[in-house]
Amino acid sequence: MKLTFLGAAQTVTGSMHLLEVNGHRLLLDCGLYQGHRREAFERNRGFPFDPDTIDALILSHAHIDHSGNIPSLVRHGFRGEIFTTSATRDLCGTMLLDSAHIQEKDAEYLNKRHKHGTKVEPLYTMRDAVASLAFFHGVSYHRPFTPIPGVTAEFLDAGHILGSAITIMDINEEGRETRLVFTGDLGRDGLAVIRDPERVYKADYLISESTYGGRSRHPADDIEQELQDVVTHTARKGGKVIIPAFSVGRTQEIVYNLHQLADAGRIPEIPIFVDSPLSTNVTEVFRHHADCYDEETCKLLQDSGDPFGFGRLHYTRDVDESKRLNSTNVPCVIISASGMCETGRILHHLKNAITEPKNTILIVSFQAEGTLGQRLVERQQQVSIFGHQYTRRAEVAVINGFSAHADKDELLAWMANFDDDLKRVFLVHGNLDQAEMLAGGIKEQREVPVTIPARGDSVSL
Ligand SMILES: [Zn+2]
């Protein structure tokens, strides 16, 4: 068999790998590459293979850097089946449409700005996204399936976001048995709502993520206390807590934690708003997937009927409601997207809150270089929002413990479960420095070759 690394190789976006077995071709993930606009557009549009030669696709989870280029794949001729968990299929139903909307808006904006240039086509349209949904096939965890002849695959819970999966592939090639394991993105123990990552004990080859392969973070249990402190402190000053959060995972985690804190009387009785149509829709998918909940969330479901809704929590969908929220002057918590403060309604909330010392901007997600979120983390005094300069007087608080990725120690502990059959580890989905630090950790742990493939690298196994 042949394995080719086509994306998220020495970087963190555009996850895509190609497995060729018995003359059949199976794609692992088909994520959107995110970077500078032109480069990203070219890379996402131009597949390094003919999409109609791909027999099937296995999708690890719904994050756009893993799923977001599926509509392009279908637009360019892919007609195979997309195997994923039911929760991921349902999340994609919302997220790919949202992504298509962004692609269309982007093209519209560029065409308006460069009226006389060549017309820019969106990477894909709403129609492409809708068409791609027809190819999704939801599979439960622990139910073996056959994506292509000679490969028996099974999903295990990756504990990263709702529906995320580790894929085990038992490959039979002319009588030779090989087991390949793909982590997708690996979560960590103790995350709210979802179950902990499952352990795997056997593999010949492992493709592992390495996002935080070089970092060790706080234990996940500090989070509730930190959240309680920020909300209580800000409410006492009469201010708002503005939380930029990704629509999938982080928003529901925050809501879940606030629910717990409110139930225990640990935060003051102030209203809490989720102001993002996508987050609201995604939360609806979470509600329908109790099959993915951990024990605590099942208990909350039993006790309250809805882990994502409680007395003081409001979901806003329409724009007028969102605008009213902007002008409110009572203490409250507002959770909105995008998580890195690049687009979306969060910008309106920041614009309104940033100049008041009584407010707090609470950062709970990873912020990439060059984003407004990163400038806030750096506590810059002057920031630009919608092209206007604002002097920041609001406080900025950062809670790091919310990460949905295993850190270096957690990745190493998870890998330590594999027995001596392990022949090679491939590290993907991490910047080179992170992957190298993880490789160093693995080599201290066991004698196994570790490869950090570059984009386009192939191996015959
Ligand atoms: Zn992810």
Give the SSE map.
Blueprint: E1 2-7, E2 16-21, E3 24-28, H1 37-45, E4 56-58, H2 64-67, H3 70-75, E5 81-84, H4 86-113, H5 126-133, E6 136-138, E7 151-157, E8 165-173, E9 176-182, E10 205-209, H6 223-237, E11 240-244, H7 250-263, E12 272-275, H8 277-287, H9 295-304, E13 313-316, H10 319-327, E14 332-336, H11 346-353, E15 360-363, H12 372-377, E16 382-385, E17 388-391, E18 395-398, H13 408-415, E19 424-428, H14 432-445, E20 450-451, E21 458-460
Parallel strand pairs: 3-4, 4-5, 5-6, 9-10, 10-19, 11-14, 11-15, 12-13, 12-14, 15-18, 19-20
Antiparallel strand pairs: 1-2, 1-21, 2-3, 7-8, 8-9, 16-17
The chain binds zinc ion.
Tell me the helix content. 25-40%
Instruction: Tell me the β content.
Output: 15-25%
* CATH homologous group name of the largest domain: Ribonuclease Z/Hydroxyacylglutathione hydrolase-like
Under the CATH scheme, the architecture of the largest domain is 4-Layer Sandwich
CATH class of the largest domain: Alpha Beta
Strand order of the biggest β-sheet: 6-5-4-3-2-1-21
List low-pLDDT spans: none
Sheet of most strands: 7 strands, mixed
Q: Distance between the terminal alpha carbons, to the nearest Å?
A: 5 Å
The CATH topology of the largest domain comes to: Metallo-beta-lactamase, Chain A
